[in-house]
């Protein structure tokens, strides 16, 4: 699968490219090494729906598993996220790295999932120099029999208020 020029906009659960321009594609043993050396911040990007209620919380209908120590940033891997999500992604990366663009970031989702590829590409375009993409994601991690923990998404970005909202 060739790398697209832009972001994948639909059919996120489908075969992904072999690599990521400006980043490093890693397999399970490489992820284990990066994590054991404290060289990356693992970022889980599984998609979640949001409520239309005031405050717009995430709607998590089932529990999800993640690599221990991960930060879950839902929807940052969408092909065309809204401005609030983009701004939230940028601010979360800034916070997680303490402004150090050379701090290693590891993006993952599920296997054959473009959300992690899109998020990794977005981080590269934001100027992060050590972006790692784990294409088999939590599926590959669990297939290897490695430990997981329950995933809890970070609070969502402020919901855009429509004129009709109270």
TrEMBL record:
Region of interest (Disordered), ranges: 1-24
Stretches assigned to the Rhodanese domain: 67-150
Keywords: Plasmid
Entry-linked InterPro entries: PQQ_CXXCW, Rhodanese-like_dom, Rhodanese-like_dom_sf
Native source organism of the sequence: Azospirillum ramasamyi
Pfam families associated with the record: Rhodanese (PF00581)
Protein known as: PQQ-dependent catabolism-associated CXXCW motif protein
Keyword set includes Transcription regulation: no
The organism's place on the tree of life at top rank: Bacteria
